[in-house]
Design goal:
Layout lengths: L8 H11 L2 H8 L6 H11 L18 E3 L2 E3 L3 E3 L12 H12 L4 E2 L7 H7 L5 E4 L5 H13 L4 E5 L9 H5 L13 H5 L2 H8 L19 H11 L6 H10 L3 E7 L2 H8 L5 E4 L13 H12 L4 E4 L6 H9 L4 E4 L1 H32 L16
Parallel strand pairs: 3-10, 4-5, 5-6, 6-7, 7-8, 8-9, 9-10
Antiparallel strand pairs: 1-2
Helix pairs in contact: 1-15, 4-15, 12-13, 14-15
Bound molecules: flavin mononucleotide.
Length: 380
């Protein structure tokens, strides 16, 4: 299958598995433990029924939306995805460029392969930087200063990963950072020659932002141990104030799944919160993200902007989340599959697919603008 015959995100996913070694795909695809929450995210979204409305004159549809006060061409952003640069050579640059061309925000992960400076040099508009809070305050302050110097317009503080939920496939994996061919992986890697030629011969293969800080990430198990020792489990809401002092621009708090937490987050002065369970990668057994969205939106939607992620694979899913109270969404794996399949062109394809699906859904639901998508556009 070629990119021009790709019809949906699932097609991109199939192409991704064809091109990228199983150990890397395992890291991208997995949810934590029994993957109950991972499955629930997609299942519960699919169970939200959209009202079909006919002859409603939904012409000249407008998909633009303001996200944290900035006009965006579409009501979604690209979520931070660690190790995107192992999907495709300079993957974070490719994704950032595709987002810029599509007129939507791109979020660079702390644990990216390309560094903040690499991405800043490759785009012309500001992107967002996602921060994981580590014990070494000097290092965090330095990362924040680097994001400021790179003109990042928002800091996305991820609060749902102070310990790592285990993903079983990562335990079995032979993936190392930088990736290397060794006895355990030789067959799986050499069966993906275009990935070898593209990623393995590339210049950037380590964690660009934390290079030299992660001792011995020989494999995903030692990476997990590093997170266990460096991520600050004692992080509290007081530390958000510490970040605020160093980051005067917009702050987004990502990883909220509880009404009480949402209330506290709204009081921090953040521009937005992201209702998210990290794509089912952290607390297995947690509710699906979409099932929590209406309660959180009811509780704090008038105090803070609500973003939503976890499970979005279609434009219909974006519509569902907007109808249930989100002002905008983030997509994770949906664009990652595109990146794996074809780099920047693949990410552009993923964005285009979701945008077109959203547009057709709006037409068939009798809606012309994003603001008209509300609970009344859903079946009860
Ligand atoms: C492979 C992978 C890596 C991720 N890395 C990060 C990360 O570095 N920082 C972060 O805040 N979230 C990370 N996430 C979570 C995403 O930002 C987002 O919340 C999630 O992918 C949304 O679910 P979806 O993939 O079903 O769209 C990651 C997700 C995946 C799939």
């Amino acid at each position: 299958m070629k990119l021009d015959t790709v019809a949906c995100i699932d097609d991109l996913r199939r192409l991704a598995h064809r091109r990228v070694p199983a150990d890397v795909m395992g890291y991208y695809e997995s949810g934590s433990y029994s993957e109950t929450t991972l499955r629930a995210n997609e299942r519960d979204l699919a169970n939200v029924n959209i009202r079909q409305r006919v002859l409603a004159g939904a012409v000249n549809r407008d998909l633009t939306q303001n996200i944290i006060g900035v006009p965006a061409a579409l009501p979604f952003a690209l979520a931070p995805v660690g190790m995107s640069g192992l999907a495709y050579r300079d993957g974070e640059i490719a994704a950032a460029r595709a987002a810029e061309k599509a007129g939507i925000p791109y979020t660079l992960s702390t644990l990216s392969i390309c560094s903040i400076e690499d991405v800043a040099a490759a785009v012309t508009k500001p992107f967002w930087f996602q921060l994981y809070f580590m014990k070494d305050r000097g290092f965090i302050a330095d990362l924040i200063a680097r994001a400021r110097a790179a003109h990042c317009s928002a800091l996305v503080l991820t609060v749902d990963l102070q310990v790592l939920g285990q993903r079983h496939r990562d335990v079995h994996s032979g993936l190392t950072v930088p990736p290397r061919i060794h006895l355990k992986t030789v067959g799986r890697i050499l069966s993906k020659p275009s990935w070898v030629a593209n990623v393995l011969t590339g210049k950037r293969k380590t964690f660009g932002n934390v290079h030299g800080r992660i001792p011995g990430t020989e494999n995903l198990a030692s990476y997990r141990d590093w997170i266990g020792s460096q991520f600050d489990q004692a992080l509290s809401w007081d530390d958000v104030a510490w970040i605020r002092e160093r980051w005067p621009r917009k702050l987004i708090i990502k990883g909220i799944l509880d009404v009480d937490d949402a209330r506290i987050a709204a009081r921090t002065g953040a521009s937005a919160i992201v209702v998210s369970n990290h794509g089912g990668r952290q607390l297995d057994g947690a509710a699906s993200s979409i099932s929590m969205l209406p309660r959180i939106a009811d509780a704090v939607g008038s105090d803070v902007e609500i973003m939503f992620d976890s499970g979005i694979r279609t434009g219909q899913d974006v519509f569902r989340a907007l109808a249930l109270g989100a002002k905008s969404c983030m997509i994770g794996r949906s664009y990652l599959y595109g990146l794996c399949a074809a780099g920047e062109a693949g990410v552009a394809k993923a964005i285009e697919i979701i945008a077109k699906e959203l547009d057709v859904t709006m037409a068939l639901a009798g809606v012309r603008t994003i603001d008209q998508i509300s609970k009344s556009t859903l079946e009860n």
